[in-house]
Amino acid sequence: MPQENKINLSLIIPVFNEKKFLPKLFDEIKNHFNDYKNEVIFIDDGSTDGSTNILKEFEEKENYKFLFKLIRLDINSGKGKAIQTGLKNSIGEYVLLQDADLELDTKDAREMYDMIKNNSDIKCIFGSRYLSGKLKKNNYFFNSLIGKINSLIFNIFFAQSLSDVHCGLKILHRDVVEKIKLTVNDFGIEIDLASQIVRNNFFIYEFGVSYFFRSKAEGKKITWIDGIKSFYYLIKSRFFDNSVSTNLSILYSSTYMAFVGSHFGMGLGNTLFIIIFFIFGSIIGIHFKIFTSSIIFFSIFIGSLFSKGNSTTFAVIIFFIIGIFLARSVKKYFLETQFNRYF
Q1: DSSP code of 280?
Q2: In the prediction, which pLDDT does 2 show?
Q3: Which residues constitute the domain of residue 142?
Q4: In Å, how far are 43, 210, 231 from 26, measured between CA atoms?
Q5: Where on the phi/psi map is residue 17: left (φ > 0), alpha (ψ -120 to 50), or beta?
Q6: Which of 109, 257, 264, 328 would be a feasible disulfide site paired with 277, CB 3.0-4.6 Å?
Q7: 239, 271, 301 — which closes off a domain?
Q8: What's the total number of domains in the chain?
């Protein structure tokens, strides 16, 4: 058996009632990751279908080289809890998150591992079911639509450009793992993980992967309810799980933008302007602290002085864009300095 202090890669695989897929999954893992410097961590998340016995049989086999770890959770606690447990028990320089249901190909996982270990500048790669020309099978239009909408909202909230924030295939360097503190126990773990990676200033690369959906009859567990809950996690991760300074910035920018919006329209139109500007303000507060946000506010104020009547709207928009550009420039200038937290 391998020595634990020489592990290069930790594969973390949550399992809940997957006995139908486990034998093939184990064969694929042996095919692509059978190395003394790898560890495979199965987290049995309270399975009741016999998956536990199958995993124990794997553990007793001697036809593999990697370090085998089996962790049993007595009750089903959710994918997020299983991943958190796996991370706490992993020691590899890299950590690969792989689902047990074979919707995602372990061959793609191997390609992602080879890519990240051969490039020291890459600390994080997310698989994407919507990139590249790899083989796909997916009949769940609603699930796919919700996933794309969530990715779009995530990109707006966190200034990213991800195509598939919910893909279960991800690989992280140990530097990333040590920075994040996951708290979500269910399928919202994907949003929790991605948001914390971005907050810690790691760049997320994407890699197109194959996707073979399975039906509910085959054991698919995620439902439309999880899709709705994901909107809650997006709001929570962006507007509540922040530092005090960021929350103050959100309050500040939302207030002055709502004030700006109150000067446009009449009646119901005025109310809509206030709401829209308030939302824009909250997003501004996410990306800019009070000082740089004030640059935007001051620029808007200047724009409001240049015109009268309907042309005021056009002037405000132009100076709002100028303010964003100036604020970004100032923020970028101070980003690598000791004063970055103020900008």
Answers
A1: H
A2: 47
A3: 4-239
A4: 14, 18, 34
A5: left
A6: 257
A7: 239
A8: 2
